[in-house]
Amino acid sequence: MKALVQHDPDPKAVVRQVSVPKLDKNEVLIKVAYVAQNPIDWKLSSGGMSPPNAIIGFDLAGTLSPWETTLPIPT
Protein backbone atom coordinates (compact mmCIF):
# COMPACT_ATOMS: atom_id res chain seq x y z
CA MET A 1 0.00 0.00 0.00
CA LYS A 2 1.09 3.62 -0.41
CA ALA A 3 1.62 6.00 2.49
CA LEU A 4 2.94 9.51 3.07
CA VAL A 5 6.04 8.85 5.17
CA GLN A 6 8.39 11.19 7.00
CA HIS A 7 11.82 9.57 7.33
CA ASP A 8 13.30 11.85 9.98
CA PRO A 9 12.69 15.27 11.53
CA ASP A 10 13.18 16.79 8.06
CA PRO A 11 9.87 18.46 7.09
CA LYS A 12 9.96 16.69 3.72
CA ALA A 13 7.69 13.66 3.39
CA VAL A 14 7.50 11.19 0.52
CA VAL A 15 4.89 8.81 -0.83
CA ARG A 16 6.25 5.27 -0.77
CA GLN A 17 5.15 1.64 -0.72
CA VAL A 18 4.78 0.19 2.78
CA SER A 19 3.69 -3.22 4.03
CA VAL A 20 0.04 -3.78 4.90
CA PRO A 21 -0.04 -3.86 8.70
CA LYS A 22 -0.86 -7.03 10.62
CA LEU A 23 -4.18 -6.47 12.35
CA ASP A 24 -5.12 -7.45 15.88
CA LYS A 25 -8.52 -9.10 16.25
CA ASN A 26 -10.16 -5.81 17.30
CA GLU A 27 -8.77 -3.71 14.43
CA VAL A 28 -10.01 -3.04 10.92
CA LEU A 29 -8.27 -2.09 7.68
CA ILE A 30 -9.65 0.85 5.70
CA LYS A 31 -9.09 1.22 1.97
CA VAL A 32 -8.58 4.97 1.78
CA ALA A 33 -10.32 6.88 -1.00
CA TYR A 34 -9.77 10.49 0.12
CA VAL A 35 -7.52 12.25 2.61
CA ALA A 36 -7.41 15.75 4.05
CA GLN A 37 -4.51 17.63 5.54
CA ASN A 38 -5.23 18.61 9.09
CA PRO A 39 -3.18 21.18 11.01
CA ILE A 40 -1.87 18.43 13.30
CA ASP A 41 -0.30 16.70 10.27
CA TRP A 42 1.98 19.60 9.37
CA LYS A 43 2.57 20.55 13.01
CA LEU A 44 3.83 17.05 13.86
CA SER A 45 5.98 16.79 10.75
CA SER A 46 7.46 20.30 10.81
CA GLY A 47 8.10 20.36 14.55
CA GLY A 48 10.24 17.23 14.61
CA MET A 49 7.71 15.50 16.86
CA SER A 50 7.10 12.54 14.54
CA PRO A 51 9.15 9.38 15.05
CA PRO A 52 11.34 8.22 12.14
CA ASN A 53 9.33 6.62 9.31
CA ALA A 54 6.07 8.01 10.70
CA ILE A 55 3.05 7.62 8.43
CA ILE A 56 1.38 11.00 8.26
CA GLY A 57 -2.37 11.55 8.13
CA PHE A 58 -5.34 11.43 10.47
CA ASP A 59 -8.36 12.50 8.39
CA LEU A 60 -9.64 10.12 5.74
CA ALA A 61 -12.67 8.59 4.05
CA GLY A 62 -12.80 5.07 2.69
CA THR A 63 -14.32 1.62 2.88
CA LEU A 64 -13.66 -1.26 5.21
CA SER A 65 -11.61 -4.04 3.67
CA PRO A 66 -12.74 -7.63 4.30
CA TRP A 67 -11.64 -8.71 7.75
CA GLU A 68 -12.18 -11.10 10.63
CA THR A 69 -12.97 -9.34 13.87
CA THR A 70 -14.84 -9.62 17.12
CA LEU A 71 -16.03 -6.03 16.81
CA PRO A 72 -19.82 -5.65 16.59
CA ILE A 73 -21.01 -4.82 13.09
CA PRO A 74 -23.58 -1.97 13.01
CA THR A 75 -26.88 -2.84 11.34
UniProtKB/TrEMBL annotation:
Gene3D superfamilies: Medium-chain alcohol dehydrogenases, catalytic domain. Residues 25-64 form the Alcohol dehydrogenase-like N-terminal domain. It comes from the Eukaryota. GO terms for molecular function: oxidoreductase activity, acting on NAD(P)H. Pfam families: ADH_N (PF08240). PANTHER family: HYPOTHETICAL OXIDOREDUCTASE (EUROFUNG) (PTHR45348), ZINC BINDING OXIDOREDUCTASE, PUTATIVE-RELATED (PTHR45348:SF7). This is Alcohol dehydrogenase-like N-terminal domain-containing protein. It comes from Naganishia liquefaciens.
